[in-house]
Amino acid sequence: MEQQSCDVLVIGSGMGGMCAAALLVQAGLKTVVVERLPKIGGRCSTRDYKGFKLATGVDLLSLGGGIEQIFNDVGAKYELTEASMDVWRIGGKDHELPGKGQLRSVIHLLTDEDKDETERVWGALRRALSWHEPSDNISLRDWLLGYTRNQRLLKGFDGLALIFLGEYARETPAGEFFRFLRAPRPSRLGFPPNGCLAVMESLSGAIQGKGAVVWTSCEAKEIVVKDGVAKGAVVQKGEDRIEIAAKFVISDAGPKKTVEMAGSVNFDEGYLKLIREVLRPSVGICIEAATDKPLLQYPVLNLPEADSVVQVFCPTLLCPELAPRGKHLLWAMGLLRSSLPPYRFAEEEELCMRDLRKFFPGFENAEILEVKYLSEDYYPFFHSCPGYSLPQKTPVMNLYNVGDGVMPSGQVATMACEASARSAVQDIKMRTGRA
Prior knowledge:
Elements: E1 2-11, H1 15-26, E2 31-34, E3 46-49, E4 52-55, E5 61-63, H2 66-74, E6 81-83, E7 87-90, E8 93-96, H3 102-110, H4 115-130, H5 140-144, H6 151-165, H7 174-182, E9 188-191, H8 196-209, E10 213-215, E11 218-226, E12 229-237, E13 240-251, H9 255-262, H10 269-277, E14 284-291, E15 300-302, E16 309-313, E17 328-335, H11 345-359, E18 367-374, E19 399-401, H12 413-431
Parallel strand pairs: 1-2, 1-13, 2-10, 13-19
Antiparallel strand pairs: 3-4, 5-9, 6-9, 7-8, 11-12, 12-13, 14-17, 14-18, 15-16, 16-17
């Protein structure tokens, strides 16, 4: 078996893995990234189909935050077209609710502009944000029931929780909802005009120019563990089986897959119990359709009152490069009625289709390009719902997870992936005297 070595081996080239690799090369650490698929990016990538550039999972990226800073630091191009997230369809009408006070405005509309109801609920939210954070032992819905019985508002909070955190209010730990609202994050988002793959390839090229190695079509078969310490991994690259010795291993494959690669015998029962009983992937459905004319006037539309679909995107309003000339893309994101199995994807898909037919006249004439079931069998919406993430360090010394299975509290999506990458790399730098 061929032998190679590096300081840090990164398994997986999603946003968490690639941000970690960029931070590592900036710290002067010899880094190797291995990706089992033929192209990088994982859920932050692009598939070409019939002239359309379809997202593998991630639709929007943040502007002006930690991700963009990492790209700038290594000299990678970070090209996004800014998209407003401020349009909400409530009560059959579209409302533009920009900036500060947006959440209060949404609540006001969901109460049929009942001022007393709005102030009672908003006052409770404000106190929870500024004074006493609710416990994670109570769901957001149960917490809300202490202040309102308005069924339309409660349903609307289901939509809000799905849009913000990828799970229903009845499943969201109340404390986590408020930590999300308080956490600093970029307020601007944008579509990559040529798809997420182009963005990630820019980062890959930049870090390879600084000495990193990035291998695609290279699957990590086994994380090598000796005496409780990660020592590298055995990978399959074409017909070659290679053992890469490493001082540290970072996995962007999700906590469950990390345990499989390293072997459950190397993890204590407490950690394995977290994998079995706490880790809760956020599962959903993404429908991508082609239309001759855009079915909405805005690049992004929030639907807190829909039964299944929570956000709809028309990125070609801003980025016509994502579709053939004269065509438009419609992306619809729907979350399942429960993040817990068993999943009934066929039923959930029909609910999404029903929402789209209801909210967008003309959708029946759209060409369905792809329906993706976002689960562990493909790519979950998140590897773990907020509030159910695992610790970043594993019981195996020098083995870290990054990504949205180990999201820092209050963070979600690619921003959580970047934050987890920073945390892992900071610990490695401290342990190697490079902090």
